[in-house]
Amino acid sequence: MAMRTQGTLIEYETTTPGTFAAIGQVISFDGPGGKATIIDTTNLQSVAKEKLPGLPDEGAFDMSVNYASDDAGQQALQAARLAQSPINIRVTFTDTSTAEFTAYCMQFKLTGKADSKVEADVSMEITGPVDFTPLTPGP
């Protein structure tokens, strides 16, 4: 069954391990999602290309936010980018399933135009696996 995006919560892990806090004013997100490289194992005795999957690469997690200079979540992303330190992210979908991962914030770019609002485009590179926790059905 399809689920709505409205109500999806994107959080970062605070300095207290296991404690997550919201990243405010999120407009949209893209990811997580990745793929593996292809390792060519073809040799001189092969009659066709032979391949193996390489290590999974979970790719990127991108989002757009309404810029709020006083939002602790946006401040944490900016600080992680400047420090080049990893940040733990949790996405809680509207059905209560989650995706958790560690990422490096590579970009926090402000944008604006006439008769509009200031937004920030955030780009994170995921390092390691993504832990998907499915919805646990009730009784």
Number of helices: 1
Which consecutive residue ranges, at least 5 long each, have pLDDT under 50? Answer: none
Helical percent range?
under 10%
Q: Quote the distance from N terminus to C terminus.
A: 19 Å
C-alpha Rg (nearest Å): 19 Å
Sequence of secondary-structure elements: EEEEEEHEEE
Strand content: over 45%
**Oligomeric status of the shown chains?**
single chain
Principal-axis shape equals: globular
Mean pLDDT: 94
Q: How many strand elements?
A: 9
- Trace the largest sheet across and list its strands: 2-1-7-8-9-6-3
* Secondary structure category: mainly beta
Strand count, sense and barrel status of the largest sheet are: 7 strands, antiparallel
